């Protein structure tokens, strides 16, 4: 009975139901214009993480991206409290999504459950110049959605910066989760392997600030729903999530299965920045990929310090870093801490202030 009550409460929260706060839905422009700016790489600051702005752990920088299960039965995930950034990305035409973790500060002994690689992941791995570890790929011959094709096209093989964890190394099957979400990556071992190979990973930091955001709309709760691609009136309850701002802690993400917690610690993972990237998604044989493989510019909804501003994302060339601009067209200064970034086209984003 307690579990049923929790599920009902979560459903109410994700629907944004409240009797005392006005819910505002963000409207995205179809033909939006974007600032014409020239962005340079930011200098690396010794002792500071390029991804979180927090003191680094003294580890060699070897960014590693790992796709993770986002189905309720696979949660809680493990090792995610060590991720610098978590992404939520399109997976199915029925609004299904997957999580993608970027480890660049702390490297846990294990993290999971690891799932297969998709073409909604590789452009992000390339933008962050990260190694990519994954549990196989779908056998698709179509070029635009073929991970195997783009691993070669984008030089993940020279030198090798990708790891199929369906092989014999850097992984194991755990007993506390059912298949297929029971594959665990040995992230620390992967990190040590990459460090020993002395691969030169480019360090392209975000900008950070110690000052909280003090402009824009107040937004203590953010709701994200993922629509069916061919039926916008339907949304996927297993992908829906809410981010609640808790002063002194950060944003706590809640979904139908409860708060996003790390199985290793039993605690919820807080985020200092929540960003929704509105990005065109195309489909081939039921598999998604980003139009122009994530090259271009788009609208970005930015939530920091319990406030909302509407900004822009930039990624004009494959080799460029992913950049975010604020509402004034200047490069966004991130709050120090972890970030959660949602990518998608068929999404509904709203917020309230309580």
Describe this protein's structure:
- By secondary structure, this protein is mostly beta strands.
- The chain has two domains: 2-41 and 207-352, YerB-like fold; 64-197, YerB-like (YerB-like fold), CATH 3.50.90.
- It has helices at residues 2-14, 122-127, 147-153, 187-197; strands spanning 24-25, 64-68, 85-90, 97-103, 111-112, 131-134, 162-164, 171-173, 183-185, 207-209, 217-218, 221-228, 231-235, 241-246, 250-255, 258-259, 270-271, 273-278, 281-284, 287-290, 296-304, 307-315, 323-325, 333-335, 339-344, 347-352.
- Strands 2, 3, 4, 6, 7, 11, 18, 21, 22, 23 and 25 form an eleven-stranded mixed sheet that branches. Strands 1, 12, 13, 14, 15, 16, 17 and 26 form an eight-stranded antiparallel sheet that branches. A three-stranded antiparallel sheet has the order 5-9-8, with no helix packed on it.
- The chain is globular and about 55 Å long.
- It starts with a helix and ends with a strand.
- Mean pLDDT is 92; it is low at 1-9.
**What fold name goes in the CATH topology slot of the largest domain?**
YerB-like fold
SS class: mainly beta
Strand coverage percent: 25-35%
Number of strands: 26
Nearest-angstrom radius of gyration?
Answer: 19 Å
Tally of discrete structural domains: 2
Number of helices: 4
**Elements, N to C (H/E):** HEEEEEHEHEEEHEEEEEEEEEEEEEEEEE
What is the approximate shape? Answer: globular
Summary, kept brief:
The protein is mainly beta and 354 residues long. Helices cover 10% and strands 34% of the residues. It contains four helices and 26 strands.
């Amino acid at each position: 009975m307690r579990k049923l009550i929790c599920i009902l409460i979560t459903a109410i929260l994700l629907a944004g139901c409240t009797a005392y706060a006005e819910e505002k839905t963000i409207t995205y422009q179809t033909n939006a214009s974007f600032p014409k700016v020239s962005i340079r790489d930011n200098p690396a600051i010794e002792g500071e993480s390029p991804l979180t702005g927090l003191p680094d752990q003294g580890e060699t920088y070897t960014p590693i991206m790992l796709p993770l299960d986002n189905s309720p039965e696979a949660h809680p995930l493990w090792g995610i409290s060590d991720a610098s950034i978590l992404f939520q990305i399109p997976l199915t035409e029925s609004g299904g999504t997957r999580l993608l973790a970027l480890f660049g500060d702390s490297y846990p002994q294990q993290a999971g459950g690891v799932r297969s690689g998709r073409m909604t992941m590789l452009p992000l791995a390339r933008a962050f110049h990260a190694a990519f570890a994954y549990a196989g790929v779908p056998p698709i011959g179509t070029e635009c959605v073929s991970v195997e094709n783009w691993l070669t096209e984008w030089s993940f093989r020279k030198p090798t910066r990708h790891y199929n964890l369906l092989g014999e190394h850097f992984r194991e099957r755990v007993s506390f989760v059912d298949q297929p979400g029971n594959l665990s990556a040995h992230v620390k071992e992967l990190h040590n392997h990459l460090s020993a190979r002395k691969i030169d990973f480019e360090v392209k930091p975000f900008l950070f600030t110690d000052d909280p955001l003090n402009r824009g709309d107040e937004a203590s709760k953010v709701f994200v729903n993922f629509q069916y691609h061919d039926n916008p009136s339907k949304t996927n309850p297993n992908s829906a999530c809410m981010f609640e701002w808790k002063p002194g802690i950060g944003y706590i993400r809640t979904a139908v299965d409860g708060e996003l917690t790390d199985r290793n610690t039993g605690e919820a993972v807080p985020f200092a920045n929540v960003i929704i990237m509105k990005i065109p998604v195309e489909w081939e044989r039921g598999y998604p990929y980003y139009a122009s493989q994530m090259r271009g510019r788009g609208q970005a909804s930015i939530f920091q310090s319990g406030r909302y501003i509407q900004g822009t994302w930039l990624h004009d060339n494959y080799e460029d870093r992913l950049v975010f601009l604020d509402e004034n067209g200047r490069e966004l200064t991130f709050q120090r801490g972890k970030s959660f970034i949602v990518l998608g086209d068929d999404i509904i984003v709203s917020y309230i202030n309580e």
